[in-house]
Amino acid sequence: MIFYGTKGTHLHSEKVSGVKCNHCEQQNVHTVSIFGKFFYIYWIPVFPLGKKGVSECDHCKATYERKNMSEQLKLAHDNVKRNSKTPFTHWIGSLLLGILILFVIYSVKKHDKDVVTYINNPQVNDIIKYKSSKKAYSTIKVTDVTTDSIFFVANSMEISKRSKLYKIDKEENYNAERFGMSLSDYKEAFDNKDFLDVDR
Question: Does the structure show a pLDDT above 80 at 51?
Fold first, then answer.
């Protein structure tokens, strides 16, 4: 299955009169049509690739690309092309991609801001991400918070990619013995990068 490619759509047509046809040599009306080409992914237009025009003699139906047109017809073609605007829809994929990028940036910045709040005000069930070894990551879950201490239970599983930690963040994996530390040591662990992130 092809998920990407190029495609063309009709943009605009105009009748041009008084132009001699190279084929039938009659002074006839010619229809100049402009087509816009665009690149698509999954049938969604991403960005335009330019415009191309053809002319058709209304008398003999002979069709010409610009390179084969007479000088008079080329001038008419170029005028019609200038009047043919690339539709906004040919940019829709780029717009969606831009919105997605902005959303990701916003989400990351918001999460970073939230993490500061979570670190300073830990709550039960907060999930702390950390590097458990040189090639693995794991999590611990907050089980209790007192005036000066915080208590956790460790995840018994590890995973090689930090982005995949959600796969092992399951209730049945938190079955180790509870342990604790002071709140000051907890905050320092983030400063020292011993703890990497916290989700709530």
Answer: yes
Q: Is the pLDDT of residue 2 over 70?
A: no
C-alpha dihedral over 157, 160, 165, 168, to 10 degrees?
Answer: -30
Residue 159, SS3 per DSSP: strand
CA 50 to chain centre: 22
For residue 190, give the nearest of 106, 122, 133 by alpha carbon.
122
Question: Hey, which residues does 109 pair with through a beta bridge?
Answer: none
Model confidence at 1, in pLDDT bands (50, 70, 90)? low
Q: How far apart are CA 26 and CA 116, in angstroms?
A: 79
- Could you say which DSSP state residue 89 is in? G
Beta strands in the chain (DSSP E): 4-20, 27-41, 44-57, 63-65, 127-133, 136-145, 149-154, 179-182, 195-199
Closest to 172 (Cα-Cα) out of 157, 158, 187, 183:
157
Backbone angles phi, psi at 14, to 5 degrees: -140, 150
Give the pLDDT confidence of 84-122 residue by residue, as tens digits: 999 999 999 999 999 999 999 999 999 989 999 999 999
d(CA 9, CA 36): 5
Largest CA distance in the chain: 97
